[in-house]
UniProtKB/TrEMBL annotation:
It comes from the Bacteria. CDD domains: GST_C_6 (cd03205), GST_N_3 (cd03049). This is Putative GST-like protein YibF. The gene is yibF. InterPro entries: Glutathione-S-Trfase_C_sf, Glutathione_S-Trfase_N, Thioredoxin-like_sf. Residues 1-82 form the GST N-terminal domain.
Length: 203
């Protein structure tokens, strides 16, 4: 299999952490495919019509894209148990969706600051995206701590990757304020070898 990736993509990081945790890293060849919405990565043309990473090329089927699809596939392939059966599965999927919502909002703030011409940037719109992140972190701190402290699953991995990206690009905004339990959980969880091995490079 071939994974089209960028080392700074938080969605790619989710997949990479899963590969580490399920012992599949050696089964995947990494193909660099960095790009932006204004300048799509050439290697993705013909692989993913949305030209987004991650994309997973398989020898026996169409290329998979969207990190949630890829993670579910790889977990099933390894029988990793990161998506539990029964009622618990829906909690895991909801937590992963919440984490991806944090990433969506954080990336929009990043693109607003990096890609939109300086005179056209809309601070109120970026602040509205940050409000989504604040509400999501508050919900995690108030509602989801028992789940985060439970057996390892994809929801936990997704939340850690989301918070890691917020630190990476928007640390000055301070998501930890008022979220002491979440901050303490993250400080412990990010010490896992899979998280340490997939930290994005500066830049």
């Amino acid at each position: 299999m071939k994974l089209y990736y960028s080392p700074t993509s938080p969605y790619v990081r989710k997949v990479m952490v899963l590969l580490h945790e399920t012992g599949q890293l050696d089964d995947v060849e990494l193909i660099g495919a960095s790009g932006t919405p204004l300048d799509p990565a050439d290697p993705l043309l013909g692989k993913n019509p949305l030209t987004k990473v991650p994309a997973l090329e398989r020898p026996d089927g169409p290329t998979l894209f969207d990190s949630r699809v890829i993670c579910a596939f790889l977990d099933a392939r390894a029988q990793g148990g990161l998506y539990p059966d029964g009622i618990a599965r829906w909690d895991t999927l909801t937590l992963e969706a919440l984490a991806d919502g944090i990433l969506d909002a954080a990336l929009l703030i990043t693109y607003e600051g990096r890609l939109r011409p300086e005179g056209m940037q809309w601070d109120s719109w970026a602040d509205a995206q940050w409000s989504k992140i604040e509400r999501a972190c508050a919900a995690l701190n108030q509602r989801w701590m028992a789940h985060l402290a439970g057996p390892l699953d994809m929801g936990q991995i997704a939340v850690a990757c989301a918070l890691g990206y917020v630190d990476f690009r928007h640390d000055a905004r301070g998501w930890r304020k008022g979220n002491d339990a979440l901050a303490a959980w993250y400080a412990d969880f990010e010490s896992r070898p899979s998280l340490q091995a997939t930290r994005p490079p500066e830049g």
